[in-house]
Design goal:
The protein is an alpha+beta fold. It has a single domain (2-136), classed as Gcn5-related N-acetyltransferase (GNAT) (Aminopeptidase, 3-Layer(aba) Sandwich). It is built from 4 helices and 5 strands, in the order βααβββαβα. It has helices spanning 15-28, 37-47, 99-113, 128-136; strands at residues 5-9, 53-60, 63-73, 81-90, 116-121. Strands 1-2-3-4-5 form a 5-stranded mixed β-sheet. The termini are far apart.
Length: 150
Amino acid sequence: MRENIQIDTATKSDLVVIVSLLEELAGAVENRQGLDMKVTAENLAALLNEPDSYLLVARNDGEVVGFINFMVRRTALHAGQSGLIDELIVHQGVRGYGVGRSLVSAAADTCRRLGCIELEVSTEKTNAAARQFYRQCGFTEDAVLLEMAL
């Protein structure tokens, strides 16, 4: 299947499928507080027009089967920009075929092309499968993410 995967920039016509993929992701999240799929759809539409946000889809024979959303930002201490993956989801029926790895690779390639010096991602500490996946993609667990509900 990996040879049939094509990574493209998401378009407005992809948003309905992306929202359904994000519903899959939300179903796996331990803390669903504050998740609202109507707001998610609105956020996606806005992100399509944000200059520092990147939404990529994986297509298998034209059908969207995966999605990654990342942003590029400058920080005070880094010499170059940093990439930050916010969401990554692959349709449950095609997991294990390299779709997620292809999306992460495309995000990393985009970040390199933009002059980023790192790519970051976070996941729930209880999500052992995601943590293992990201380690297999070359990420290391270097930091601790702290959150404050507002």
